[in-house]
Amino acid sequence: MTQAMAIKLPRLQNDLLELFRIGYDAESKGVFRMGFTEADMQARDWLIRKFEQEGFHARMDSAGNIIGSMPGQHSGPVVAIGSHIDSVPAGGMFDGSLGVLAGLECMRTVRDHGLHCQYPLEVYAFAEEEGRFGGMMGVQAIAGELTPQWLETAHDANHMLLRDEMTRAGLNALEALNARVDPKHFRAFLELHIEQGPVLERIKKPVGVVDAISGVYKWLVRLIGKANHAGTAPMDMRSDAFMGLADFAHEIPRIIDEDGTDKSRLTIGWVKLKPGYAHTVPGEAEFTLVGRDTDPQVMHDLADSCRRVLSAIARKHNLMFEFEQMSWLAPQAMSDEVIQAFCRQAEALQLDYEVMPSGAGHDAQYMAKITPTGLIFIPSIGGVSHAPDEWTHWQDVEIGANLLLHTALDFARQSF
Ligand SMILES: [Zn+2]
Q: Cα 135 to chain center, whole Å?
């Protein structure tokens, strides 16, 4: 009976706590393992040793991804599990690490039960998922989505070049192109991740099965008016760029009502007023606008609507309007086959689950381009993530890891 089989939570807990200590900062109580930093590479070495101590084979590929493997009766295709172990600055314990270490725990559980899977299991700890260099570099390498030009020029917010940071870490940026894996290598890819949002906690369900990952676009918008003396310029003779921005911010709920869905998000996260002086009417408002949805058509509709509304507001306030599209990442549906497998196993384990979208990006969105891929969530307390107080109840960790285990076995079609 596979239902009786379960992971051992204390082992997984211990691994999560041990990994959290690598790059941990006592002052902020967060972890600093940004891609290709010393702490990140130390964590990668730790992980290889961890697999080896358990008797599994592990290696680092040319993109810095760590791959632990367990053979099956056939040489392939492999059932892959994974996530990332890099972090944002002052990150939490679970983001990414959970999906990797739960994969390791799945392998240990299979080994302890003496199961011989038909197909090999592989656990991936992808490199640089958090986008220090503006992408998901490790998984993009595996999916064949990197270009030499990007590898040569990508840099972080402090203008450190990816290629220099990789050299420092003992890697070669251009060789990351060789990390590409033939899609035929894979049978399926499964990722377990914390939700990083408040939905599961609110509806009191322990598991979310993701049906699609939101796409996201980022604009840099400029409303240009005329800077003027805040005392002498009459209210009806101003070209106040901030007034335009404020009007637009108020239009966001209506734009979503008319052209979006309950999965749409529009966010103005960064604003700069010029000249930015208390006694001067703002002559320019520069701001970012980030839009998200899980449906490509809805994303286009939202973008069109934002453009129309911004034009109208600019006319009304006597402003000029221009914008630059910094990025456009299309939404990514998860595989029906894997969604159904997760749901089937959740029912067998008598888990109450929710089929839901993911508003955040994950490694799964690139694996989905090359193999049937699925993503499951467990609740984040208070919806908090990318922060030191990110937390998830241990019983939910156990539930998520067990669902991952049984679904992986479903694909590996174990025989006794
Ligand atoms: Zn993550």
A: 10
Around Cβ 21, how many Cβ atoms within 10 Å? 11
CA 363 to centroid of ligand 1, rounded, Å = 8
Amino acid at 119: Y
Q: Are strands 57-60 and 66-70 parallel, antiparallel or unpaired?
A: antiparallel
Q: Is the confidence at residue 3, as pLDDT, over 80?
A: no
In Å, what is the CA distance from 308 to each residue of 251, 286, 291, 312, 413? 11, 18, 15, 6, 53
Q: Which of 334, 359, 354, 358 is nearest to 343 (CA)?
A: 354
CATH classification of the domain holding 174: 3.40.630.10
**How remote is the CA of residue 108 from the centroid of ligand 1, in Å?**
23
Instruction: Tell whether residue 25 is among the known ligand binding residues.
Output: no
Give the N- to C-terminal CA distance of the chain in Å, as an integer.
11
- pLDDT band of residue 2 (cuts 50, 70, 90) is very low
Quick one: 302 and 226 in the same domain?
Answer: yes
**Is residue 347 a known part of a binding site?**
no
> Does 130 count as an annotated binding residue?
yes
Question: Nearest-CA neighbor of 303 among 284, 318, 321, 323?
Answer: 323
Distance 386 CA to ligand 1 centre (A): 9
CA angle 360, 412, 119 (to 5 degrees): 115
Return the pLDDT at 134. 86
Helix axis angle for 241-259 and 296-316, nearest 10°, is 150
Structural tokens at position 307: 């453009």
Taking the centre of ligand 1 as the mean of its atom positions, its distance from the CA of residue 62, in whole angstroms, is 21
Range of the domain at 160: 2-213+331-412
Nearest C-alpha neighbor of 120 from the set 103, 145, 99: 103
Judge if 372 and 227 occupy the same domain. Answer: no
CB contact at 8 A, 352 and 198: no
Q: What is the pLDDT of residues 118-171, one digit of tens each?
A: 999 999 999 999 999 988 999 999 999 999 999 999 999 899 999 999 999 999
Q: For residue 413, which amino acid is it? A: R
User: Residue 371 is encoded by which pair of tokens?
Assistant: 């193999």
- The residue written with tokens 């914008």 in the block is 323
Residue 95 among known ligand-binding residues: yes
Same domain, 306 and 388: no
Rounded Cα gap, residues 12 and 19, in angstroms: 11
